[in-house]
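Suppose you are handed only two things: the residues of a chain and a line of SMILES describing coenzyme A. What would the bound structure be? This form records exactly that question and the answer produced for it, so the two can be stored side by side and reused later without any lookup.

QUESTION INPUTS
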Amino acid sequence: MTVQIRPFTFTRSDYAACVQLRNKLYADTPATVEVWQHNDRLRRQDRSYHFFVAEREIDLASHEIVGYVQCAKKNSQSRTVGLGMVCAPTCWQNGVAQQLLDQVKQIAAEFKAADLVQKVQESDEQKLSFFLEQGFTQVMRHPLSVLDVGRFDGGRFQNKWRQMEGAGIEVKQLPVNWQDDLTWQKLVYTLDWTLVQDVPYYDKRVQEPFERFIQNEIFHPNAFPESYFVAWDADRPVGMTCFIKRGGGIQTVSTALTGVIPAYRRRGIAFALKLASIRFARAAGIETILTHNEENNPMFHLNQRLGFTQKPAWLDLKYSL
Ligand SMILES: CC(C)(COP(=O)(O)OP(=O)(O)OC[C@H]1O[C@@H](n2cnc3c(N)ncnc32)[C@H](O)[C@@H]1OP(=O)(O)O)[C@@H](O)C(=O)NCCC(=O)NCCS
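ANSWER OUTPUT
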């Protein structure tokens, strides 16, 4: 089979072909062209973003995309390049994945990257074998947890709600249309940064500029501003949880972040935030909540207690250049 590696063209037809390939392989979490275009616009600004496709010649007049790789620095200051490679099953062993990876290594060398990181779900055996054989090693493991909202039994956790109220904390949904108000936008920006710094990660975190954060948090096609719940100690925000949509819809959502500032931990606040958001999910008609947590994060065990069931984990695999 003749396969050519070429840059992605950012045309409607390349987007459609790559999204179609991806959704065939990962049907549970479908992507959309609109979401990709939004992400690409942001990534192209300052993160040395590159995107290559592997195209198979069917006959002289037609081609088919059988694999692709996107790569970008993890943030503007990072020397780690995150890559997202997707290939048709035959391509992991027939040299196509190898060609895509070689292309990434060449790009990474040009901007003196220190390492590459690729996420692989541990059930994706061919992909996992490919990266391990290439010398990638696991640096983090994040089990995927899933909640069937319709079967959730919140009554069992009333004591947790009382624990939080007893500590003088109130959990409230952000006001309707908070996203149109600069004061609320800034509050969310600041609180998110305070909380996210404690989420386990393999690289140094860098706060995004405010404008970029808002583009991602509010104007992203998967943004879900109605799902923001904040825990308050009087007028001080001390914790937050929120969802993002999957594939632009709300049938399945993911928890984007749940966090509580250090001085307020172990008072049942995260538990209460999660209970409030699950209650919201049920009322909004959400069927499934997905979440990934690093396996040693207390949040992982908290989710298990809430009734989330564990699915194959995502692994962060790293390669030192
Ligand atoms: C994880 C986190 C949100 C928990 O917040 P919290 O308000 O302290 O959690 P709660 O008080 O509601 O704890 C609920 C349960 O979680 C577990 N838990 C919470 N923190 C724990 C810890 N440090 N060690 C062990 N278990 C812990 C316990 O089972 C606890 O129940 P218990 O107090 O009855 O034993 C908080 O530690 C945090 O903000 N961490 C940094 C951000 C982060 O990693 N978020 C998750 C990834 S998005």
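WHAT STANDS OUT: The CA atoms of residues 94 and 229 lie 48 Å apart. The pocket of coenzyme A is lined by residues 195, 198-199, 257-260, 265-271, 293, 297-299, 301-302 (CB under 6 Å).
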